[in-house]
């Protein structure tokens, strides 16, 4: 069984048909994050992919924001599926997994808010392990929040999401079910998992504190201190134990450097592999020891600022006979139960009867009825009828010609008069026609002259940015950037080296050239 996770950064942005994309990834279960679709935006090509059954979680707060989706091959159809980490998100939904754990340390508003951004989908599968024993496996697909350094509330939100995630994962594990937690965790665990250096490496980020206690001892970073009081730390609760999951990639490659899954697109950091590892597949320790076969970072796959991570297990999926209720194919708009608004605007095919024959006859004929025998016959219209029809058409056409052109509103009254007089003269003689043509040519020349002078005036007013300078490090043309960060320089433009961001020791990486754009001297 192959399980894959990928922050796709917009599922509808894919330039390749989803079925072809998924087949190229070669995985039985594909877990996507940051789908950026809400329920109203979900279309059939995205929801229904041939050969797969899908399960979505949507943001309830913002349109086109966050969102996760799990696509399972027909051979890996889950027995249960659930949106969110807690039961209150969809209280009436059938097929939930249960086992929510002790959530007494969360308020009702907190539980509601943590599931409101569409960040989790859980699928439960029946599996056969390498020794032939049948078991159950829960796959928790998550898109963990990013902590905004300028907003303390988002850091708290992120830590509370971690706490609820761990509570649910460990509770499912205690129930006897194997558990895989995967997705964009938005955490750089160890120093080896990031290129950049923090401003203060001695200060441990709260997210790393959480992750370090979440994994088993073999994956822990000894430089990260233990959490003294789990009740006081927002990322845990008193009910969790920690140390239950293995980092699947580091299980096989504990010391591999440059193993990143995310790169900044604005700085072309992927060219120099100046990135970070944010995407993980965590496997419960028992399953990792017995059935985890390999885990790879697929850095060669493009299409997002993240790349996929795929784990392979010596496991066989036993597909369910029927997809769970959360499956998108059961949504009313995709199973044919909902009447779409577009259907009201489609032209309906009409069954013709005798009353319709008259309107569908050839225009050169009219329908007449014999009162004696009730039969209908086609009668050629008389010459008088033809003249009347032509008169009607002429009247319509004459009305249309009375509509003025837009340029007429911009002509001076004297110019309009000249044009009218020229039109009259054109109808009377060939000489006047030549005169009219000359006037029209003069008008065109004058119009071109005005347009040219107007364009030159605009060009002198709006010069645009100057040509890019050459960077000192590589003597290559720089690129133009704009400051987007709030502050006194927001909106200002500057030139920097065009090469990708990288370590200062890398000669192929961006040099330190920087120059503000000076429009005054341009």
Considering the chains and any ligands shown, give keywords for the structure.
alpha+beta, Deoxyribonuclease I, Chain A, 12 helices, 522 residues, 6-stranded mixed sheet
Structure report:
- The structure is a single chain.
- Helix 11 (413-428) runs antiparallel to helix 12.
- This protein has 3 domains: 2-335, 4-Layer Sandwich (Deoxyribonuclease I, Chain A), CATH 3.60.10.10; 412-462; 464-522, no CATH class.
- It is globular, with a radius of gyration of 35 Å.
- By secondary structure, it is α+β, with helices and mostly antiparallel strands.
- The chain contains 12 helices and 20 strands.
- Helices cover 27% and strands 19% of the residues.
- The protein has helices spanning 18-25, 44-47, 108-114, 152-174, 206-214, 248-252, 285-291, 332-335, 354-360, 383-400, 413-428, 430-461; strands at residues 2-7, 29-33, 52-57, 68-73, 80-83, 120-128, 134-143, 178-184, 245-247, 262-263, 275-276, 279-284, 292-297, 309-313, 316-318, 366-369, 376-379, 479-482, 493-496, 514-516.
- The strands form 5 sheets. Strands 5, 6, 7, 8, 9, 12 and 15 form a 7-stranded mixed β-sheet that branches. The protein has a 6-stranded mixed β-sheet with strand order 3-4-2-1-14-13.
- The two termini are 62 Å apart.
């Amino acid at each position: 069984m192959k399980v894959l996770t990928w922050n796709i950064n917009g599922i509808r942005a894919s330039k390749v048909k989803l079925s072809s994309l998924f087949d190229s990834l070669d995985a039985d279960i594909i877990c996507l994050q940051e789908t950026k679709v809400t329920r109203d935006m979900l279309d059939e090509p995205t929801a229904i992919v041939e050969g797969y059954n899908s399960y979505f979680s949507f943001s309830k707060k913002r349109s086109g924001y966050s969102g996760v989706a799990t696509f399972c091959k027909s051979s890996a159809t889950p027995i249960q599926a659930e949106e969110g980490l807690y039961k209150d998100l969809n209280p009436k939904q059938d097929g939930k997994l249960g086992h929510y754990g002790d959530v007494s340390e969360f308020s009702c508003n907190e539980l509601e808010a943590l599931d409101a951004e569409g960040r989790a989908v859980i699928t439960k599968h029946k599996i056969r392990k390498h020794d032939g024993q049948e078991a159950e496996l829960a796959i928790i697909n998550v898109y963990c929040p990013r902590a905004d350094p300028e907003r303390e509330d988002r850091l708290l939100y992120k830590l509370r999401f971690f706490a609820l995630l761990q509570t649910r994962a460990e509770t499912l594990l205690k129930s006897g079910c194997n558990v895989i937690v995967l997705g964009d965790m938005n955490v750089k665990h160890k120093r080896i998992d990031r290129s950049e250096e923090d401003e203060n490496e001695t200060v441990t980020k709260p997210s790393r504190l959480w992750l370090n206690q979440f994994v088993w001892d073999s994956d822990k970073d000894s430089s990260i201190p233990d959490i003294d009081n789990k009740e006081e730390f927002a990322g845990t609760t008193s009910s969790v134990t920690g140390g239950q999951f293995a980092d699947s990639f580091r299980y096989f490659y504990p010391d591999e450097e440059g193993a990143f899954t995310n790169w900044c697109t604005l700085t072309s950091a992927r060219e120099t592999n100046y990135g970070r590892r944010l995407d993980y597949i965590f496997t419960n320790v028992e399953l990792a020891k017995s059935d985890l076969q390999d885990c790879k970072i697929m850095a060669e796959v493009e299409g997002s600022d993240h790349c996929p991570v795929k784990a392979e297990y010596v496991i066989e999926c036993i597909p369910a006979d029927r997809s769970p209720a959360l499956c998108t194919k059961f949504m009313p708009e995709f199973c044919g139960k909902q009447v779409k608004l577009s259907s009201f605007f489609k032209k309906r095919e009409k069954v013709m009867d005798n009353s319709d024959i008259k309107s569908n006859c050839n225009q050169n004929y009219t329908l007449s009825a014999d009162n004696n025998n009730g039969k209908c016959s086609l009668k050629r219209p008389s010459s008088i009828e033809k003249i009347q029809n032509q008169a009607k058409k002429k009247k319509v056409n004459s009305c249309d010609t009375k509509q003025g052109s837009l340029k007429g509103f911009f002509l001076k009254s004297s110019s309009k008069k000249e044009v009218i007089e020229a039109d009259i003269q054109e109808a009377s003689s060939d000489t006047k026609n030549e005169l009219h043509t000359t006037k029209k040519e003069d008008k065109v020349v004058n119009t071109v002259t005005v347009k040219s002078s107007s364009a030159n005036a605009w060009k002198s007013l709006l010069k645009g940015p100057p040509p890019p300078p050459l960077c000192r490090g590589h003597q290559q043309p720089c690129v133009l950037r704009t400051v987007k960060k709030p502050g006194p320089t927001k909106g200002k433009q500057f030139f920097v080296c065009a090469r990708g961001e990288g370590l200062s020791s890398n000669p192929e990486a961006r040099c330190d050239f920087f120059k503000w754009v000076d429009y005054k001297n341009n």
